[in-house]
Amino acid sequence: MASMENATGGPQPTAGGSALLGASAMAGAGLFGSIGSAYASQAQGYYQQAAYSMQATENLRLAGLRADKQIEYAVLQNERRQLQTEFEVMNYKVQGNTLLRSLSKANAAARARAAANGVQLGSGSIAAIQDTKVAKTCRDVGLTDLSAMVARVFGMEDATNILKAGYDNAFYERAKIHKSLS
């Protein structure tokens, strides 16, 4: 049996052929392992892509909410400024009324002194003093009315600018959203 044949007459497998078969089995296992690893990496990529997509969607939703809240905040600030303006106007009106009350009291006191001294009310220094006080008080009341009007105009301008800024900020916030989508 020098030719290494088995009892059936065929060639007998050698140790070298078995190693070749083992090597090809190992190569096949490595190939299948590589394919499995590639599919696992692909699945991980899909998972990461879905996570990024969810995060982007959530960021867009939050940016939209921020834009809406900026508008709400601007509306509240606008209303607060309008109320503040009305209080300023009322304070000027109170100042004007206080000036008129003071004029009324001063005129009443001057008339009482004139009557007590027997002086005629519409003549002399008493009339000149009353005329001067009335002129100065009317000028001061006019200034307080002007100040009230200026406060109202500037207050409304401020309130309008606050509201405009809020809408502009919301617009630019939404523009960022649309820019990030494209």
Average pLDDT rating: 82
User: Treating each run of at least 4 consecutive H or I residues as one helix, how many helices?
Assistant: 2
Radius of gyration (CA) equals 48 Å
Q: Report the strand count.
A: 0
Range of strand content: under 5%
Unreliable stretches, pLDDT < 50, 5 or more residues? none
Helix-strand makeup class: mainly alpha
The helicity comes to: over 70%
Q: Please describe the biggest sheet, giving its number of strands, its sense, and whether it closes into a barrel.
A: none
Q: Could you tell me how far the N terminus lies from the C terminus, measured between alpha carbons in angstroms?
A: 81 Å
H/E element order: HH
Instruction: Assign an overall shape.
Output: rod-shaped
